[in-house]
Structures are given as structure tokens and as C-alpha cells.
Amino acid sequence: MLLRERQREFVERKIAALIDSSSTIGIAPTGAGKTICLSAVVGELSKNAVSFKTCVLAHRDELTYQNLAKFSLVNPHISTSLYNAEVKSWDGQVTFAMVQTLAKENNLRTMPQLDLIVIDEAHHATAKTYQAILDHAKELNPSLKIFGVTATPNRGDKSSLGKIFENCGDQIKIWELIASGHLVRPKTFIIDLGNTQEKLRALRVRANSGDYNEQEVASILDTIPLNSEVVRHWQEKAGDRKTVVFCSTIEHAKNITNAFNEAGIKAVLVTGECSLLQRKLTLEAVTSGEAQVIVNVAILTEGWDFPPISCVVLLRQSSYKSTMIQMIGRGLRTIDSVIYPNIEKKDCIVLDFGISSIIHGNLEQSVDLTLKGEGYKLCVSCKKKIPKSSVECPLCGCDLLKQESEASEKESNNSPKVIANFKMKEIDLLERSGFSWTLLELGQEAMIASGFNSWCCILKQKDNTWSTIGGSTKKGEESNRQVPSKVVYSGNKAEAIEVGNDFLYRFEDEEAARKTASWRGMSPSENQLKWLPKKYKVSDQLTKGDASNYLTFIFNAQPKLKELGFVL
Prior knowledge:
By secondary structure, the protein is α/β, with parallel strands linked by helices. It has three domains: about 5-175, Rossmann fold, CATH 3.40.50.300; about 180-365 and about 400-420, Rossmann fold (3-Layer(aba) Sandwich), CATH 3.40.50; about 425-565, no CATH class. Helices cover about 35% and strands about 20% of the residues. The protein is built from 21 helices and 21 strands. Helix 10 (about 225-235) packs across helix 11. The longest helix is centred in the C-terminal third of the chain and has 20 residues, at about 545-565. It is globular, with a radius of gyration of 25 Å. The relative contact order is 0.10. Residues about 370-375, about 405-415 and about 420-425 have low confidence and may be disordered.
């Protein structure tokens, strides 16, 4: 399995940070492949030392099993074990443990000396259960290394992650993933209902939490006329989209849910008052298609992903930009056409009825198409090393661009507006690919790339939708690496390219991906020329790499594309 370029950069920075210090945290949002990166870091540190012992901590059982499965995919030759309520074993070189189980005193006594502790969802690391584990591990090994990963570094209780981590070695920005096609593009509408924005601007954050009083926010946004207007704007701009709504209070959420249902739109509600069974049934109502809208209060900000969500409604606000990004992130995942064959998703509508997008700036304006590496700086508050482009300190939550945010707010006006979308530079994405893509002459825009085990073809359809189709180059191969031919994406070109890259990364290795390898630029072999149709041999610029891709298309991809119903 291959890492994307940005993932590899993240891994290299985290390893360097762990060499230079005893603890580091990395920030990786939805779509970055956080678990893959985590696994690669542990794999690199473990591969040259059989005695190197690691424990990966998570606070939910499903995360523990998910981390174990992905780790084994990235590092199939490293032994693993489980430590949770059902299985208690330290036999593996890397043990995946449930925090709640391991933190019990009797279980801590079984812990061997560890060289590395990895904390998934590391914004929970200041909790007492984590502290008990870390303190005990440091007693056993004063040279212990601690590595944390999270998508949401800023805690609502203002508990500083700087107590645990010495630095933030890298932070992948959500707008990097939007620009690269790993997430769909947001389309933000800022809507002022009456004079709500003026009232919301007058609110002040609370000293103890650094955030707004949700009751005060709800007192402005939660009225019968306004709730009806929310539904009306949603009907006009979102239509039949699957939607998640974030509210300020439980009472507010109940009223909004009722407003949707009274308008004939099936909406369901999940809050902290729901039991685990109620929450499960509510989420299933959305995933099964029974409900179109799910309303929540601080429940779905993290740990829940349903890719068909393509509209996010903000009826609360936060002084933390990271919280706003997490809410919007629920609607930015791309669609896997294999799992959701009848759903096409090109963007995500964001309806902001508060002032979050005014205070923090919308994601569209933040997108950086250059995707260049970054340096580091010291936080003005906690004085710890953080990525240079950070707008909030991941370790202490300090607002590093407060003056710029205030200036941006003054420049905004009260009228509803839609933020214009940005233009993608697809050629940059091809240049960044680990594989060599060859343009096909099919009477339609198309390209193909291939490795030793798989191929991927990207086609533009008559309706301007781009489809990504992947399959196997091995006929009759009976192994886990065989790849059934399938449509893996339909939508925008940029996303199609990145889904194609990810498909090949999943089944190939460094040797297959070397697009700059000298043999690719050589002249075609006699055997290649023998099998290539005349139309591919007319160019003097034909290379061995292009010839290889053409032959893969003719003998492997083309028959499968026709089987899948594509007109070539």
C-alpha cells in the first residue's frame, strides 16, 4: 500500500518530531487518512527494532477494531494484539487498547514496558483515564515517546493539550483536502434572518470556556418565524439533499425538527438525552433513507461520517474555527460509487444562519491550490512549536489571527450571499500523482494509469460528469490483491483524479508507482509495438510507459468498461 504525497510528508514530520522530542501531536481532519498515517508512523518506528513495543489507545471499541484493521493493512508483517473488555493480550509488537479498560488499576499492572504510546482522538488525552495510563507507562519507561493524532485539537473545557504534547509536528488543513479533490467543495450561503447577525455580533464569549453561551445563541435564533424561514431557505437551496443540522440547545433542536416535519420533510433528532439504542436507531433512520434530515446538539461534530450528507445547516456558532470546520466536514466526504451506486455528489451546501463564516472565514476562501510544505513558528501564548500556517494554536487554543478575523467581520454586510466557488487546477493533481497517467483517444476526455496489479481509467461523460473505474490486471489471480472491476467514483474531475490515485495506491507499491523511472521514457519495445493498434504508433513521442498504459487499456480496461455499460 502507498501513502499519498501529503500523507508521506505528515509521517516524515511526525517521525522527525518524535526523534527530537518525547511527545508530539499531529492534526489530520476528515478525509486525510488519519489512521493510515498513524499506522505508517508506528510501522516506520517498529520495523528496525523487533523489541520496540507500542500501544495504540482509543476511547471507543469500534475505533480500536478499525485502527487494528487498517494497521494490519499498512503493516502486514508486524504482529498485533488487543486489550479491551473481551480480550486482554500484550503478545503483539503493537497492542490496540481501549482506554476505559486499560485505565483500571488491576489492568495497568499487566502493562509491559512500552517504547511508544499512540493516542487516537488525542483531544481527549487530558482526561484522568488517559493520565493514569501515561503516568504508569512513564514510570515503567522514563524514555517513553507519546504520539497523538486528532482532527479537533481545541477542547471546549479549555484544557490545554500542551500539558501532554511538547509540539505540533504537522497539521493537514481541511482546505488542502478540498483543493486536492479528497473532499468535495463546499458552497456557503450566509443568511441573515432579520437582524440576527447584529444580535449575534453583540454576544460575548464566556471566560471559563472561551466559547459562546448556547442559551443566548438559541434565544436569538430559536423563534417560530425564524425556524420556518430556516426550512424555507433549506427547501430553496438544498432541495432533496441529505442534511445534518447543528443547533444550540436541545429545545432549539426539538423546535427545528418539528418545523421540518410540519413542512413534510422527514427529520429526526439526536441529542445527549438519547440512550445509545435511541441514537443507533436515529442514525439508522438516516442511513436507511427513512429520514432526510438529522438534527443534533453537539453529538455529530466528531466520530460520525455518512458520505451522502451534502448539506450542513449551522444554527449555532463557535469561537473556535476548528469546531466550525468539524461541523462542515460532516458533509464533505466524497461518495464511493460501489457503496452508494445511485448517489452523485459534487459539492456540499452550507447554510450558515449565524456568523461563524463571517468570524472565521468560509472554507472556499481558505483553499490553497499551491499545497506547498510549511515551516514552524512558536505560539505567542504557550511558546510551543506549531505549524506556521496555524490560525489557532492546536496545543492551547490561542486565536492567532484575531485581529484579521475582526477586520473580516467589519467588512462583511448583513445581506444574504453565496460565496463563489473556486476553480481547480487539475493538471497540478496529475503532476502530484505517484503514477504516470496517459491520455486516451476515445472521442471523449479520458486517461488511464496502471501498476503491476491494478489499473484505473477516468472518463468524462456526456453530462460532464467524470467517472473513475478501477480493476485488476491479473486474470484469475486468487489472492487478496485481486481487484474486481468497478466504478469507484462519479462527480467532479478533481475528485475523480484523486479517487483514481487512491485506488492505485491501495493495491500498488513504490516500485509500481515510480512514474519517473527511466524505463517509462524509453522507446516502446518490439513486443509492445507488435500488439499496439496503428493509431497509437503514429506519434514520434510514444514512450514505453504510454505504450504500457495503452495495452492495459486495450486488453484489461476496455472490455471491463464495456461490461459496466460505458460507451467508448
